[in-house]
UniProtKB/TrEMBL annotation:
PANTHER family: OS02G0175800 PROTEIN. This is Fiber protein Fb15.
Amino acid sequence: MALRKVYSEIKGMKVKELPNYVKPMLSLDYVKKSVLRGLDNYNAKYIQTSSIDPLFHVCFGGMIFSYLVALPEERRHLEHQQHANDHH
């Protein structure tokens, strides 16, 4: 949703106007406010309503994180196995 808003605001601009529009969004203060606004929205949507969705978010996030952490090692094992099969 936020990307649609940014896109709709940008599509009418000229290229020279773009840096003046984007530069304030890249400031540390703007990023902090955006993160806090996102956390407040998450709190209002899931935590205050006693929803079980945050538990699902943690479970699925943990699975994705563990998969991404193990992926390089698994790829090394696969490459080693393929290399061993090529030489036998």
